[in-house]
Write a structure and sequence with these properties.
Strand content of chain A: 15-25%
Number of domains of chain C: 2
Number of helices of chain C: 15
Structural class of chain A: alpha/beta
Oligomer: heterotrimer
Distance between the termini of chain A: 47 Å
CATH class of the largest domain in chain C: Mainly Alpha
Largest interface: B-C, 48 and 53 residues
Family (chain B): Belongs to the binding-protein-dependent transport system permease family.
Keywords (chain B): Cell membrane, Membrane, Transmembrane, Transmembrane helix, Transport
Distance between the termini of chain C: 11 Å
CATH topology of the domain at 9-97 and 180-194 and 208-335 in chain A: Rossmann fold
Protein name (chain B): ABC transporter permease
Number of helices of chain A: 21
Radius of gyration of chain C: 26 Å
Domain ABC transmembrane type-1 (chain B): 117-373
Radius of gyration of chain A: 27 Å
Helix content of chain C: 55-70%
CATH superfamily of the domain at 9-97 and 180-194 and 208-335 in chain A: P-loop containing nucleotide triphosphate hydrolases
CATH class of the domain at 9-97 and 180-194 and 208-335 in chain A: Alpha Beta
Transmembrane segments (chain B): 6-32, 44-67, 120-140, 152-172, 184-203, 215-235, 247-266, 309-330, 350-373
Largest sheet of chain A: 8 strands, mixed
Chains: A alpha/beta (693), B mainly alpha (383), C mainly alpha (361)
Strand order of the largest sheet of chain A: 6-7-8-3-9-10-12-11
Number of strands of chain A: 26
Amino acid sequence: MTDWDPSKPILEIENLSISFFTRLREIPAVMDFSCTVMPGEAMGLVGESGCGKSTVALAVMRDLGKTGRITGGAIKFKGRDLTTMTEEELRHIRGSEIAMIYQEPMASLNPAMRIGEQLAEVPIIHQNMPRAEALALARQIIADVRLPDPDRILRAYPHQLSGGQQQRIVIAMALMAKPALLILDEPTTALDVTVEAGIVDLVKELGAKYGTSMLFISHNLGLILDVCDRLCVMYSGEAVETGNVREVFDKMRHPYTQALFRSIPLPGADKNSSPLIAIPGNFPLPHERPKGCNFGPRCDYFRDGLCNARDIPMDAVTDHDRHATRCLRWTEIDWNAPAKVGKITEKLPPGRLVLKMEDLKKYYAVSSGAFGGGAAKVVKANESLTFEAHENETLAIVGESGCGKSTFAKVLMGLETATSGSIMLFDENVQDTPIQARNTDTVSKLQMVFQNPFDTLNPSMTVGRQIIRALEIFQKGNSDAEREAMMLNLLDMVKLPRAFAERMPRQLSGGQKQRVGIARAFAGGAKVVVADEPVSALDVSVQAAVTDLLMDIQRENHTTLLFISHDLSIVRYLSDRVMVMYLGHVVELGSTDQVFAPPYHPYTEALLSAVPIADTRVQKRRIVLEGDIPSAMNPPPGCPFQTRCRWKSQVPGQLCETVLPPVQVLAGGHQIKCHLSAEQLARMEPVITIAAE
Amino acid sequence: MEPLSWPMIFAKMVVQFWPVWAALIVTVALSLHFRRRLGLYGKLFDSTVGLLGFVIVMFWVFTALFADLIITFDPIAQISQMKNVSPGTPVPGSDQWYLLGGDHLARDVFSRVVMGARRVLTIAPAATVIAFMVGITLGLPAGYFGGKLDTGLSFIANLVLAFPVILLFYLLVTPEIRQTGVPVVLAAVLFLFPVIFVSVLLNSRYFTNPARRNLYVGAALAVGLWAYSGLAFNADPTGIWSMDPNLLNVFVSVVFVNAPTVFRIVRGIVMDLKSRDYVAAGQTRGEGPWYIMLWEILPNARGPLIVDFCLRIGYTTILLGTLGFFGLGVSPESPDWGSTIDDGRKLLSIYPHPAVVPALALMSLVLGLNLLADGLREESMRD
Amino acid sequence: MLPFLLRRVGVMVLTALTLSFVVFCLTNLAPNLEKLARTEGSVRMSDEAVLSWIENNGHGGPMVMRYGQWLGVVPGWTRTDAQGVTRGRCIQGGLTAETAPRYCGILQGDWGTSTVFREPVIKTIKDKLGATGWLMLWVMLVMVPVSLIIGVLSGMREGSRTDRVLSTFAIATTATPEYVSGVILVVVFASATTGISPILAEWGWISGRTLFLGTATSAIDQITFWNFALPVMTIALYGIGYIARMTRASMTEVMTQQYIRTARLKGVAFHQVILKHALRNALIAPFTVIMLQFPWLLNGVVIVETLFNYKGFGWTLVQAAGNNDIQLLLACSVVAVFVVLLTQLISDIGYVFLNPRIRLS
């Protein structure tokens, strides 16, 4: 350690190859991977699921499990090769020199140990620090990660903290020994966007304060831009492009990177005039990788005989800062050529009114306490929802966890009945009609697309059978043969091969499953479709394809789409109107343009600022909300957002703390539920500005 | 004739079991050949433990099937000179031996154990199947609907589980209780569940097509009620379905003891699975609750249920043995393993073989089932 | 915590009442009473005589009323016969109709008289429970530590050689019910003709004819290693396998948890990971399993006490059932059920204490 020169790289991965060994075969997970992290530098690893980015992180920790093995290359940390170290040597490095932060904060803390003990353990092991001293250090670090009341937290168990607080504890634990390298594996994926923004700020600030180098793993390009100095794009087990973040974002030299950027909804993309361009085809399975370039079969610039001839090495991009690409044709491609724009479509005018909710309320009575003791509490999941939706229209419902958007979907679908208020579906009042009592026609016209692709299909029924069952229930078709034909047509509609009818769901990829889910929802000719985060669990390149499919079907069937999401980028891309929810209340409602431009509701403003955008031209005002989302069991009095609102001081008196704000209707029917006066709202500045090129 | 030495005894037994070996070889060879196409069953052959368990279990299954070909003597025939003789003693007046000796009533231990396999392997799996049907039919709605129904059913299940099994047997399996007709009432209740289960299963699936539904449900009800009348009330006019009152008593008690545990397992799995999106998808297209429980949830609970099924057959075998051990079993003549152990234990320290042989048989069967369950669990978790 | 406890106890009392009523009904079935009449009165009684005997001895009337009397919430029956002698449930042991209390059920401490042992049931139960208590104590002392150690060792590194060996052992013991392992243990260790005893005797290593005693009758007076080891081992073996497998399952599950990886990647040494991080989480599940195994332990006790002729609670249960001793059987059942319910309560409370996630929410 002593002979390490601080001007040398802190981490040097050279031609690393990792394989997992199953009974049947060896599955290569990472091939010929190289990257270098300098002291104080933040390196981003980005790629879709299954590309091997987490495997690289675990390899650095030498924690690949029983089946994983490093089959080649070296990982040098401060000049010493980690791949040849003994368990004992590794133990001294783990936690003290290299620390790791994980995706699921709850799962990574020991549920039966107090926070203080878990934190203090690190210096006790590595520095033989006395317990009292270690606890004092823990207390100080807890304050450092900006958690309130450190003494209480020291004595708390993990489940007593919220998700955001838990992640701060995991970060604190990683910082206990002031490591030289911090590995962050999707540290904010499990968190809400406004909480994520706080964590990201903290990580950046602490990284600068302690001079820690970082290996930041994420699938979110916007986050990478926010946090990292350099990045490495991975595809199917290989690094395909590496370099300075801004250079890679603005002057990418690999077709995959380019395709990736064209498939994510950046500001300016629009479903009608400039639709997203999905990457064709599918991610290759690890044991079915093509010869030569892994991206070849999906690449627009593919040339037979060149790209699939042999393994392709990394090639340095001249005149750039340590920029390299794994492409043979990067010099020949015209990188500035505009993308081939897909079919441009006309915006369809909104049709007749199909859905009208008025003053809808949904309360639940829950008993507090684990043993059913104590008084029953009322959870106000939805408070006075009022809105309309028209034919052809896409209404986005935006909000973070606990905002009541799922409850709203349940009430609308008839899985729950409303506490009060009315729901007009077509010309029928359905607020008190549970789904069993609705007639088949109503049920088949109102369908849902679910979030989790791994959960949306019954794992023990063939794809075809599941669609046919929906047809049977909706009383479509007169015979088995007829329904079979209709099912095959539905598969055509969602652009899946007809052979998939015989497949079991586990043989399908996430995107394919989601398509089956869409086919099933449209089996009865649905007129209103509730899509509950239909693409949030999918990889970015697949997201674009599924979103476009949904848009196409909507256009053809004149469907009303209720698009529930927390992702403002995709909402801006596809929705006509937006409804922002917070703790059961609609805080803002208006057309997409109205919501994404000032005046904002203070919550919308923060939400917009929190969403990471993968575009170097975008300037954002940083608004980081303090604290976590309050529990719906125990909402604050007055305005639901008052505990985190940065505008509260501008409202005179105790208005925010005591009185629920009225709905202000601004120009163009734009609704905002806030105590701020119209003048104050009008003075708001835009959160996002796009710098002129 | 000379008494046989131990190697000779084993050789003779191996020869005697020839139909079992033949069947085993065919089964394993076919399964190994097609294992990639056989799903979970095929994957079982990837695990040593599972394969071993499978072979042991199949050994006893084939022994039960071919028992008539394997036995050397009538299992209840007594040959007076052969009382408590040691293994390998020749039988006078024939060219055969008592391969594993004679018991205290001078019967052939070997043949009795082989025949005992048939008894055990008919009662234990059948009782387990009925217990599963009862447990599933009650556990599904308890887990799915929750609320008062769940509280009530769980309370009853816990009542049964709070009884020490042995006590329940002493109270439920007695000649006096047979006089009062309690077993018939229990049978009337418990045997109704399979009929309900199958009818509801078919109805929920085919109600969209009434013609087909009527055919399937009608057929299921006809066969089910026919068997039901015969088994529970001994009222089948054709006499195909009938059960000895002793056996009915034992059978019903074993089902009664097992069903609550199955209920609890099913209830737990349902509570876990009912929050899945495919269940919600079923609900949002207006499926009835029974369709969702039986066709959306139950097939996905099959992994743990199959594993528990194997374990439970083993447990039921142990229970039947316990009943036999306390003389509560079927009939004194019956060669079932539990009663044979009970008969043999009185002279245990002098003549161990009449008790040890069925004891080892029972142990190996249960061990096989446990290993099989373990293999299945391991393989099903590997996905 | 307190409301939870109250609710739990409430459910327990309700369960106990329901179960004791069921047991009461099952033991007081008409055929049982007829049999009792014939054994207590005379074997050659006419059917009418049997009926009047039943009626005269307070076994007539609705089941619920009789249950109430037995419980002690309904006044005991009294009957004055033709001679003017008043007999009654509570009139016994020198008491007259005037001095006898109105209620005499188990709530008043009166459990009736055993027809087999010819003594108050409460005395029989007390003596025999004591004997069984010793057996249980030793079983627990052997079973719990051994099974936990086996479970933890095999679950700690899933798939290792230690795991394979210990798991196979655990599976084998769970596949061996007490009446099988008891038989085998006796044949191997306590038979004068087979097993190791003849060999040891021949070598002169043991003075008696067998290494261990094949019966535990003498253990009532004095427990020694030689008369108690086999019964204890017989019960413990079956339990060891079961609890060890539960512990192993729990341990392997904990070992795959992320917080174990967190600990490992913090640089905690492997044995510290096990002791500090894994063990406590892994032992929550086996604790409840051990407690919930009591109904089944009782099973083993009955079998082993019968097999080894140890005159404890299980042996008494068999005697009571075999000899139609209604009062004794009833008492045994109630005690057994009560023990089971009590352990369930302990397991619930213990679970809450072991698991901070539940305790503090």
